[in-house]
User: Fold this.
Amino acid sequence: MSAAILLWSLTIAQILLAVAMAIAAFRMIFGPRAQDRVLALDAFYVAGMLILVVLGIRTGSTLYFEVALIIALLGCVSTIALAKFLMRGEIIE
Assistant:
């Protein structure tokens, strides 16, 4: 019984995260300002990272968790770089 509940909840979580990625992709394409696009990129990579975490829980493999960690680190650095570029117009001082 509990294995079935876990399977269904993981499936629903993956579907909802895929919907969140689609909405974030829509905002990245049709965002009115650059700040909206950066925020949508943030939401996109966080949803992608969470899909990998859910997939890792489902399969029991640790490889997905490591890939999710790399995505989180690269996403954080790219967000900081884009925010600095939008604020100052340059990344390297």
Summary: The chain has a mean pLDDT of 91.
